[in-house]
Amino acid sequence: MKMRFFFLGVLLCVFMQLNAEERPFIVVETDDISLIYQVGTDGRLYQSYLGERLTNKNDYVHLPQGTEAYLTHGMEDYYEPALHVLHNDGNPSALLKYVSHEVNSLEEGVTETIIDLKDEQYPIEVKIHFVAYSKNNVIKEFTEILHHEKHPIILEKYASSMLHFAKEKYYLTEFTGDWAHEANMSETLLTFGKKEVDSKLGARANMFASPFFQLSFDSPSTENAGEVLVGTLGWTGNFRFTFEVDHLNRLRVISGINPYASQYWLPSGEVFRTPDFYFTYSTKGRGEASRRFHDWARLHQIKNGQDSRMTLLNNWEATYFDFDENKLLSLIKDAKSLGVDMFLLDDGWFGNKYPRQSDTQGLGDWQENAKKLPNGLGRLVEEAKMEGVKFGVWIEPEMVSPKSELYEKHKDWVIHLPNRDEYYFRNQLVLDLSNPEVQDYVFGVVDGLMTRYPGIAYFKWDCNSPITNIYSMYLKDKQTHLYIDYVQGYYNVLERIRAKYPDLSMMLCSGGGGRTDYEALRYYTEFWPSDNTDPIERLFIQWGYSQVFPSKVLCAHVTSWNKKASIKFRTDVAMMGKLGFDINLHELSEQEREFCIQAVRQYNEMKPIILDGDLYRLVSPYGRQHTSSMYVDKLKNKAVVFAFDIHPRYGEHLLPVCLDGLDPNKLYKVEEVNLMKGSKSSLSENGKVFSGNYLMTAGLRLFSSQELFSRIVKIEAL
Ligand code: GLA
To answer: What is the predicted pLDDT for the residue at 378?
Structure first.
């Protein structure tokens, strides 16, 4: 029966080829972008155009045919394919022809286009999906692969997206680094050959490379000028972006799961759905591209993206593992007096046989340590409630310490090679989330805590180890499925948590910024960009992440890293994101403590502008001694400007900073805020009124020649 449909499909294909004049243009478009495909006389699908929106449909016929859209291994192409399959008869090729396409409206301003491709020789099918968010100018792409061969086919390569470009020059910006050194931006000119940005880390997937990139065409783009494509993959595991320039100087960009050690056996009739790749394209530089992503993410992607976020006091750097009930009760009081919304209890509260008094043991035993917390978490939840602050708690439920009761009981749940010595990253191992029993257990960690203590308002969900010594007892002869099934298992758990606790806020943390992708953010309200909270380093790290993520999801805490920087400097840096404190308030002077209390109040007042406004990055910290960014509310009535002097040079000539995003015709009052008690603003324009036009063309003299000096300036329309 299935075969009959298949042959019918093939006949249809042949028919399509015969009617060349009926070959359709398939147009995926947003308000400003067009992505146009056409079917060639050979019946294959070609990408004819990607760029600024083409307004006249009659012009489409003039477009060049372009490059085959979703190139396959084994045929005429000489470069990296999007798809590589192995059929039941051992044949490694695929040739995809257009069958049909459909366009569906998903909601107001959101349209899905599905293009169906089939092979005439083998019953395999690829559906390419595009979801276009018109107003936000973001396009989401993924593919579905299925077949009706008798036995499973083997998927060797299975990209989410393949995009083609024919430009003079290509400049790639990648975001790479390490623990405490995340999302460093570096730009390379792509020349002939292949450049890959990928991850093979499994769980803590983004420790070295973030799953996003910027690609500028012809010349490097700036904040306000230049042609740029920004892309990111929503996959909390191994990803790969391949950029390959061919002999004709054409570029292909292939995005998807990293197929490294991940051959996948796909049974007949089942669908392999690739993760989502999201991109935007702008002719006005990186600033516009970022703002598009920020708006789209708050509206369509991030968990509770439209809601506000809680400020918090975290005990990690104040106590590390050294705390007991009394210390925590007094920290809850500190949270209250600081005026933040929540107290967050970090690592170290659990384990009895193997108490978690350091990172060497206890992971997996999620019962309160009876010595530290004789009255359980319940006492803390109650106290927080009495003080009128929310309570949050740290967990790392995907992991296990070899010194834990869980490890003793369930070695079969641990990813490790049974016949080799174990290797520990941060003294721990990863649980096998491909196993449904492990998924139940991980869900049970959250569900158990929530059932016992419904007052818990927040989880900081950590993931400190990559997958090492990769072997699953559960997957048996399908070991190459582990990297993928692990992530699917992780999503199954998160899906259950979100369904049962839709309002629960969660921080995505992975030894700092080891997990930073948009699929995870469907389940988490925010993420921890880095364990590095040195404010100077944070200026770079936050600058990097802000290229793709809104400040609403960037947790930024005031800590005691780099005490050379004043508490004001440290707080001003953290106020650019989702503000928190991770510091012993009693180490601060009276004046510093008072400043923090006042800063929380100030932040609360400006929070809607910072978290939901438009970000304009004004002066980059890269290669400069100063940096500045601002947020503007959607009505252009209110703005907040941040300015930092890092290490001014002797005798440096300071230039004014031109603001952005304001209404040139409105009048605005300029006022420096968040000053230490007793100090006066040294900003020459303080308290004065200017037109938006002046502020954006003549600018403000925001910078000083003082080392580690910062200022926050409020701009308000009269
Ligand atoms: C990771 C996190 C930190 C902290 C520790 C606790 O390193 O990034 O913020 O929670 O774990 O062990």
So the answer is: 98
* Rounded distance between C-alpha atoms, residue 571 and residue 433, angstroms: 39
Tell me if 122 sits within 8 A of 241, measured CB to CB.
no
| Cβ count near 421 (within 10 Å) | 8
**Rounded to an integer, what distance in angstroms lies between the CA atom of residue 31 and that of residue 651?**
48
Nearest to 366 by CA among 452, 283, 292: 452
Closest CA to 631 of 606, 655, 656: 606
DSSP category for residue 475? T
DSSP state of 298: I
Distance in angstroms (rounded) separating the CA atoms of residues 93 and 486: 28
Residue 711 CB contacts under 8 Å (≥ 6 apart), including other chains: 572, 642, 643, 672, 674, 681, 683, 702
Name the residue of 509, 532, 558 whose CB sits within 8 Å of the most ligand 1 atoms, as the mutation to test its pocket. 509
Q: What is the pLDDT of residue 16?
A: 44
Residue 510 CA, closest ligand 1 atom number = 8
**Contact 399 CB / ligand 1 (< 6 Å):** no
Helix H or strand E encompassing 533: none
Question: What's the pTM value of the predicted model, to 2 decimals?
Answer: 0.96
- Give pLDDT, residue 17: 47
Please indicate whether residue 346, judged by its CB atom, sits closer than 6 Å to ligand 1: yes
User: Which regions in the chain score pLDDT beneath 70?
Assistant: 1-22
Please tell me whether residue 531 adopts helix, strand or coil conformation.
coil
The label of the residue with tokens 């990293």 reads 258
Buried-exposed string 458-497: b where 16+ CB fall within 10 A, e elsewhere: bbbbbbbbbbbbbbbbbbeeeebbbbbbbbebbbbbbebb
**664-718, pLDDT tens digit by residue?**
999 999 999 999 999 999 999 999 999 999 999 999 999 999 999 999 999 999 9
Separation CA 621–CA 185 (nearest Å): 11
Q: What is the 3-state secondary structure (H, E, C) of 395-413?
A: ECCCEECCCCHHHHHCHHH
SS3 604: helix
**Residue 531, ligand 1, Cβ within 6 A:** yes
β strands within 267-355, DSSP E:
272-273, 276-282, 312-314, 342-345
Report pLDDT for 10: 43
CA of 72 to the centre of ligand 1 (A): 43
Closest C-alpha residue for ligand 1 atom 1: 511
* 3-state DSSP assignment of residue 70: coil
